[in-house]
Amino acid sequence: MWKASLNGTRSRAEHPAVPLTAAELAADAVRCAARGVAAVHVHPRDADGAESLAPPVIAGAVTAIRAVRPGLPVGVSTGAWIAPDPADRVAAVRAWSVLPDFASVNAHEDGAEAVRRGLDTRIGLEDTLHLPDGSPAPDNVALVTCACAWGVG
Predict the structure, then answer these.
(1) DSSP string of the chain?
(2) Where is the chain membrane-spanning (predicted)?
């Protein structure tokens, strides 16, 4: 399965085609899905272009993509750089009224377990290279083992 990560932390200064608005993410998702992508991962932005976990921002991006490409799984980031305070990050995730199909939770970040408890958990080396204690994950099995220890499944 191919999953397209449409924008990440990238800015237009880094590449002029980085999609930032909900409409741009939706248009990019349609084009990528037409080429065989089975899911998209996005970092939704607020009106100022900053990454955000705010419920209206998440809802806007997820809804825009689903409106133009129904059935395409949409995932978002919950990275600590977006909302550094774990309590703020957890509160934002719990307030989402429109849920993405998946969300990335970096296991090594403060508050990761609390964020994870508010979401279905998917784990892997794709973007989580460290175990919850901060040490490097030796492999995907170690990350899955941690997820199981957290009571996932």
Answers:
(1) --EEE--TT--TTT-TT---SHHHHHHHHHHHHHTT--EEEE--B-TTS-B---HHHHHHHHHHHHHHSTT--EEEE--TTTS-SHHHHHHHHHH-SS--SEEE--TTSTTHHHHHHTS-----TTT--B-TTSSBP-SHHHHHHHHHHTT--
(2) none
CATH of the domain at 127: 3.20.20.70
Q: Can you give the residue range of the structural domain that contains 119?
A: 3-149
Tally the domains of the chain. 1
Residue type, 149: A
Per-residue model confidence as pLDDT tens digits over 65-113: 999 999 999 999 988 899 888 888 888 988 999 999 988 776 666 666 6
Locate tokens 């992508």: which residue? 37
